[in-house]
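Complex record, two chains
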Amino acid sequence: MTVSRPAVGPLGAPLVQGPLTVTDFVRYQGASGDMNPIHHDAEFARAAGFPSVFAVGMRQAGVLAAFVADRLGPDNVRRFEVQFRAIAWPGDVITYTGEVTAVEETATHTVCTVAVQATRQTGEVHLAGTAVFEVPF
Amino acid sequence: MGQMSKFEGRSGAEFAMTVERGKIREFAAAVGSDHPLYSGDDPISPPTFLASSAFWTTDASSPWGDEPPDLSRVLHGGQQYVFHGPPPRAGTVLHGRQRIDRVYSKQGRRGGMLEFADVVTEFRDADGRLVAEARATLVVTEQAPTASAPAE
């Protein structure tokens, strides 16, 4: 997919989504096949020492990756990595951001390195990572 | 030595995974994207779609054998996907193999030792060409994690 030639700087407006619901978690769990009950079974979560169920980090990682891919082309992604920094909870509003930190031009592509982040409404970083996209001219 | 160190280097059996059009559509919806490349007749899979390989793995393909980690003690510390070309399209049959690439320990923020395992899945096409690699970093806590635990 050809997109306008990316430049260093923010990757458009942030995506703000929420509040997170257990339905969001269950929908992702059904799609991904990760049925860990800690994300939807309150009794299981409490028995494991948590006050309640909590968000599936991979869901927000998927939202963050898709947010960047929507802008740079789903077929152009070559690397996506995140660290799970803090738990997100039902009711959280998450802000997803991407910032192009480096561009390198090859004969046929612009290779973009993107710093990605998902932040809770408290300002706490939920996910942080890096993506690399190869965008054809 | 932590409880996972004996697993380092272990691999599971190969598993086959078909990238399906309906699953791509479901997955894209679950991560909130309506990009047109995820729908239509020849959709491409979203960047984290290979998480759904969970539907195709078997007991035999698990590198943990019959000793899977206790889900109430395992946190997901990080996740990486690397693609050696565009992500796979609907109809692609991938041949996956999981291995426990590395097991290591680190001091946690609140003093206890945390044990980490990097589980790598390689995905190859019918010709054996490496299409993608997924690396999951798992953290096993010594005791029940609390709400301030530094990971999922």
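Note: Helices of chain B lie at 21-30.
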